[in-house]
């Protein structure tokens, strides 16, 4: 599904990613861990299409397409989804208007019929339950006045509505209490299937107790220094990142 | 000696004065009306005033010179418009109390008053001048002072048709009253002097919608005066929607007078026009008045849109709230001048003012000037002006969910001004307007 080869990326002239190779297939959950400043969020944002990140070298193939040539909206329409680390507050745009527009733009891109108000409502109603959100959320402005936990649940709610093929969760666990973390993990686990793939970017192992990964990669100073299975995450939790840094 | 052939020496003031003489001779019977004396005073006021130039502080950023170069023609024959043309423009749900003027002349065929409640007077100015001189003498030209404002003076001198609405005491008008001023400049560069008068009696309620549309390309000039008298304890909503074509000129003076405990809400929307100037003056002339002024303007190309508002707190315990928002694209210019006067007697005044503008290009500009003049000591007045650009983070967030960049940008621009649109209490109008504005925001 996703093949990253030799990806080098700079932000404001500083090289952050210094040669990333990664392959993610359908049905897999990959965790990307690493200390602060290692480039985890940069990787997530480059995949989502943020324009202030300059790709210096390398390629990213997504379902046979050159991902780096695609606009952020086309990536989303082709099934890529990033859960934001810092979801943006947008006063004046209601959640329902936002999601209905997004869903119908994606459907239009795929040559599908647009949903009418009733069809849309019955679709989102079920997905709201998945993350314990009330219908009132739909009439609120996007993330405006939401608590930290509500913002992250909202990201997973959007993921549930848009049903991506590849979801990148950028530090979705940061700042969550254990109850909110469980809700988020439950949502993600419910959406996990043999047809889609998930990349979980996180600083801490805690989330991985609830979303169990198939693969764990450790990012240190812009390269993947080590890869393994879920046990690698446990070792990182016990021993910290220093041993990986030294080995690298 | 051939002065009019020399473009540089064309004297607009003289030309308008000469036109008044011509206009007078064509007035027939209505020349004998009492109002004609007002006309004569107005033209003589104009003769003294002349046209404003940017040297005049009130016109510093708005140069009317391009308007004065043209020899416009006042229409004498009605332009025939089909129902089909009208139906394209008329807002759905607003056709029940509808008065239509084309190039300043009333169009009986296109107008409709099927929902007019008993007792409500909706009449042509022409008939009021002839048939109800007492009413016209009491209100017409009494609110909009022409002594100091050249365009008001010209309108008063030349006006002969328009809409008068008299809401009797205690009458609640359910359906909004709509007046559409249409301009058709296919055969001539027309000049019209639309005149609207709304008198809301004690304890009455009325919503009045004033729209300006072009039915053709080509330059024309609308010089508008609207007078609104809000009686004691009355509730008046005034919505002015200006969508002239972008070759044309629109100068409008709206004068509001509020009696005690009255509530007045204005929503002023400017989407069109080459040079637009709105003077909206509200006088809170008794205690416990509530006045809400909202505005939205959108410019593109080389459009110039100027909103001057003046809230005159003359008496104590009044509240005013003002919010104007603009989105400027291309090389367009916006002006917002919000004057609030708190007179010595107006203790316990509470006045809020806010003006926010979104500039979409580096070439667009806004001149924003709050102007507070406070002569009472126990008052609460606040004002603020901000100028900003679209939030890139928000734009990326929407795009990352599959929304095309133009649609995402339109959503954010619309959201920026949504608190103005929400103040339009007529749902049908709000929805149609939302769709129109959203489509426009997508294109720019």
Mean pLDDT across all amino acids of chain A: 94
Helix content of chain A: 25-40%
* Stretches with pLDDT under 50, minimum 5 residues of chain B: none
Helical region count of chain A? 9
Could you say which overall geometry of chain A the principal axes of the C-alpha atoms support?
Answer: globular
Run of helices and strands of chain A: EEEHEEHEEHHEHEHEHEEHH
Describe the protein in words.
The complex is a heterodimer of chains A (248) and B (444). With 248 residues, chain A is an alpha/beta fold. Chain A has a single domain (2-247), classed as P-loop containing nucleotide triphosphate hydrolases (Rossmann fold, 3-Layer(aba) Sandwich). Helices cover 38% and strands 29% of the residues of chain A. Chain A has helices at residues 40-48, 72-77, 95-109, 117-130, 148-162, 178-191, 206-210, 230-239, 242-247, and strands spanning 2-11, 14-24, 29-33, 53-62, 65-66, 80-83, 90-94, 141-142, 166-170, 197-202, 215-220, 223-228. In chain A, the strands form three sheets. In chain A, strands 6-9-10-3-11-12 form a six-stranded mixed sheet, sandwiched between helices. In chain A, strand 11 (215-220) and strand 12 form a beta hairpin. In chain A, helix 5 (148-162) runs parallel beside helix 6 (178-191). Chain B is α/β, with parallel strands linked by helices and 444 residues long. Chain B folds into two domains: 3-286, no CATH class; 392-444, no CATH class. Chain B has ten helices and 22 strands. In chain B, strand 2 and strand 3 (105-106) form a beta hairpin. In chain B, helix 2 runs antiparallel to helix 7 (150-158) and helix 8 crosses helix 9 (405-421). The longest helix of chain B has 17 residues, at 405-421. At the A-B interface, helix 2, strand 7, helix 3 and strand 8 of A face helix 8 and helix 9 of B.
Quick synopsis:
The complex is a heterodimer of chains A (248) and B (444). Chain A is an alpha/beta fold and 248 residues long.
